[in-house]
Amino acid sequence: WSGSAQQGGSDCIKANAKSCGECIQAGPNCGWCKKTDFLQEGEPTSARCDDLAALKSKGCPEQDIENPRGSKRVLEDREVTNRKIGAAEKLKPEAITQIQPQKLVLQLRVGKDGFIPDLNDFSATTTTKERKGRNKSPFAVSVLSLFSSSYPFSFKRLNNHHSVDTMFSRHMRDLGNQNLMTQKLSDYPSIAHLVQKLSENNIQTIFAVTEEFQAVYKELKNLIPKSAVGTLSSNSSNVIQLIIDAYNSLSSEVILENSKLPKGVTISYKSYCKNGVNDTQEDGRKCSNISIGDEVRFEINVTANECPKKGQNETIKIKPLGFTEEVEINLQFICECLCQGEGEPNSPACHDGNGTFECGACRCNEGRIGRLCECSTDEVNSEDMDAYCRRENSTEICSNNGECICGQCVCKKRENTNEVYSGKYCECDNFNCDRSNGLICGGNGICKCRVCECFPNFTGSACDCSLDTTPCLAANGQICNGRGTCECGTCNCTDPKFQGPTCEMCQTCLGVCAEHKDCVQCRAFSKGEKKETCSQECMHFNMTLVESRDKLPQPGQPDPLSHCKEKDVDDCWFYFTYSVNSNGEANVHVVETPECPSGPDIIPIVAGVVAGIVLIGLALLLIWKLLMIIHDRREFAKFEKEKMNAKWDTGENPIYKSAVTTVVNPKYEGK
């Protein structure tokens, strides 16, 4: 059996449960802490009710959490009779078992209406097995026809007497519902009433009617479970075959029904039929196309949504229509906690016996109030009590965060049930602490009375300072390379020249190679600027000479390694590596022979210079010649142009005047 709820811890608190019984009815995940000193000062009794995880996080031991669960106990579980079709006559009907189990007890923990059945907590699930074994079953046959004469009733109706109504009345009389003497007091039975009586008497109805009434009775068949309609011939000669066919059809289907459910209890079905056919909801009640000897399973979910008013047990019965066998289920509702039965009436813990101490809290007698039942409802003067709810030199009652009840502050609740007011005067809360990265106490601590209590390895007002020095470790294993302090997981470099995550960078410092160049040169080759002071200034590292660059240490070793290439005083290149081991010792490996560049080849240089000069001279001459040609051509063109523009003949003086004058006589005609 299975069940569930849709409510979580917040709904447990919102229920404002005053007792353990009220708490477990608030939701399937709700539990009650019965630890005596569980509540903080100012917290109401209802704070004992919360979801299980929240109670544990608040310090309630698991053994002190009341969280009763539902259970199933099978009382009768006879195996279904497993026999073949041809062996029916070998067993007596009373020796045949067709349904399993037959009787069981369900303990159901209940919750509020609207719970979603998806957890195995507050409803239960069983598998009912059923085997088709009997080849005979009770059934009723109705052969209806039209009669012209009146029936011998105790009275004669003046209005129409329909054949279907007559059939209903006859069935109800046959089922013992009425006799002829009470007909004046009874109306025609309804279809629902008839269905109820047919089910109670395990009757499967076969309607044998003529063709003209087929449509009516097919509609009626849909309203009466496990019924069949057959077409009767005009002379009723096929009635036997009709009954056989209808019975075979009815016996191939199993339909489950249940008795009336108690208020607040719901039931659902899931069928596991032949050939892997599964159905839910209403179709989950039945399986079709079943042969004698087949076995089918039904999964039944019974869910309690509320407690009965009187808390009494209830019984429901489930059976297949037409079968005499049934499953009897006794429902026992879990409406109270076990610790409530262990309560101490008139306990001294409840202010001189003014209440029952149960489940870690006082349940006050009538007329008493307060967490410890210390006040009488008749004697309480609110003005006198309010004085106990004010802090010294303050006019605020319960810091404006609660109510003064019986001289004690009961802190109010917030919409976010994870946010809580507490304290004698409700002066504390768990949500007004310093924040970091948008989280209370940076997510690294617990807010108690507006002050962060940090988890181990964290400190600061918002628990935002980590004491873990791992982020400050440099590659050489030193914290901040020995040049700073680790504060809140970050290096604070004490030497202002250095910076970086581990104080490893220095913008104004020489590199490792340049820093040790002179010392390596003086120790390896006895030359350089520190040649004279080498023994005093350059003995801080261990030096090893190697034959070639291939012999130098390569990257991949545990110690940090720097490869260097520097020039000595002779302009020769020398190679070395510098590393510092885990003990802080510096090691230098130097290639014993520097690489010096060879001298220049003079002949090619001179030849090149001469060739360059000659080529440059030729190029200059060619350029000069080209410029002269261009200049001459321009001058000649200019001369030609001026020559063409002259207006007088070059052989005659334009100012010369001849001494000869010729006069022409107009009268002369050449004679």
What is the fold's blueprint, element by element?
Blueprint: H1 9-14, H2 20-24, E1 30-33, E2 49-51, H3 52-57, E3 65-66, E4 71-76, E5 99-100, E6 103-109, E7 123-131, E8 139-143, H4 163-174, H5 191-200, E9 204-209, H6 214-223, E10 227-231, H7 239-251, E11 254-258, E12 265-272, E13 278-280, E14 286-287, E15 295-304, E16 314-320, E17 327-334, E18 355-358, E19 361-364, E20 368-369, E21 375-376, H8 382-386, E22 402-405, E23 408-411, E24 421-422, E25 428-429, E26 435-436, E27 439-440, E28 445-448, E29 451-454, E30 458-459, E31 465-466, E32 484-487, E33 490-493, E34 498-499, E35 505-506, H9 512-525, H10 534-537, E36 541-546, E37 561-567, E38 573-580, E39 586-591, H11 602-644
Structural class: alpha+beta
CATH topology-level fold name of the domain at 510-591 = Hormone receptor fold
| CA-atom Rg in angstroms | 56 Å
Task: Label the CATH architecture of the domain at 510-591.
Answer: Irregular
- Give the overall average pLDDT: 77
Low-confidence stretches: 1-9, 112-166
* Main sheet characteristics: 6 strands, mixed
In the CATH scheme, the class of the domain at 510-591 would be Few Secondary Structures
Taken as a percent bin, the fraction of beta residues is 25-35%
Main location: membrane
Domain Integrin beta subunit tail: 513-601
Subcellular location: Cell membrane; Cell projection, Invadopodium membrane; Cell projection, Lamellipodium; Cell projection, Ruffle membrane
InterPro entries: EGF_extracell, EGF_integrin_1, EGF_integrin_2, Integrin_beta_N, Integrin_bsu, Integrin_bsu_cyt_dom, Integrin_bsu_tail, Integrin_bsu_tail_dom_sf
